[in-house]
Amino acid sequence: xxxxxxxxxxxxxxxxxxxxxxxxxxxxxxxxxxxxxxxxxxxxxxxxxxxxxxxxxxxxxxxxxxxxxxxxxxxxxxxxxxxxxxxxxxxxxxxxxxxxxxxxxxxxxxxxxxxxxxxxxxxxxxxxxxxxxxxxxxxxxxxxxxxxxxxxxxxxxxxxxxxxxxxxxxxxxxxxxxxxxxxxxxxxxxxxxxxxxxxxxxxxxxxxxxxxxxxxxxxxxxxxxxxxxxxxxxxxxxxxxxxxxxxxxxxxxxxxxxxxxxxxxxxxxxxxxxxxxxxxxxxxxxxxxxxxxxxxxxxxxxxxxxxxxxxxxxxxxxxxxxxxxxxxxxxxxxxxxxxxxxxxxxxxxxxxxxxxxxxxxxx
Length: 363
Prior knowledge:
By secondary structure, the chain is α+β, with helices and mostly antiparallel strands.
């Protein structure tokens, strides 16, 4: 993922920082740019000169008038300083502290980006007033914005100015109306800094706590519904309702299944045997290749051809905190009724077969 993708595309965060989530960019024949990062979708409409943004339930269209070429400005008179590499910056709030982010650290910050009156990205507006998280990556060029981030400590606020010309030379994707001489203004408030070790420890603690919560909920569910499942070491539960024949699949082999997925309260969120979900066809994938959630990879490798089973998947083996659909709650426990129709050899190159993403799930 190119770390100098411009935040100008509202982009996941800023022009020179790689997002912590996977970012996909596509340019169509009309020159329009479509960007997807997590559950944020951005379309840069070249003809209409607009940026259309969808983030969760928030939708916004920003009309981009040509700001014109920026006149010469005396930034020193406005209270700006320059780093040795040439980045313009002005401290607004200088909180006490020494915990400046280093390369590889995970930060959270509020950020508002604009050229003149044309807004490019506002995290408070587009992220429910929550700070955006991302990892500090190496600078792409002299005067890169990331150098400014590394000057801050939690509680600090600052304004940074980055020349469009610098971004163009670095290969960043620019909006059509951006001109030579334009300056992009970044208003930044740093909220937190965590090392990778701190993040790992925090995630392990949170994961362990959630695993216990999930197991308690599942035990209560089993007791209420008089179910006696088998539990694996990972915390997955399953009940085989019909035994199949032959060997179970090996890592990389293709498995074809029918399935119905529901949440612990019985809400069905997807099925390939129910016409209401508009994809009544068997689903084929390469098992053990992380093309599906962990509970599917593990559970399907326990079943041979012809088997029918119910998988009870704790959130850590499903989608965790990041739900792909409003029908699936964050940290939701999932239940899948599955039937193994076929088990076949691994495909050449072990590429995943196509699977519609109309339902938002990657089982």
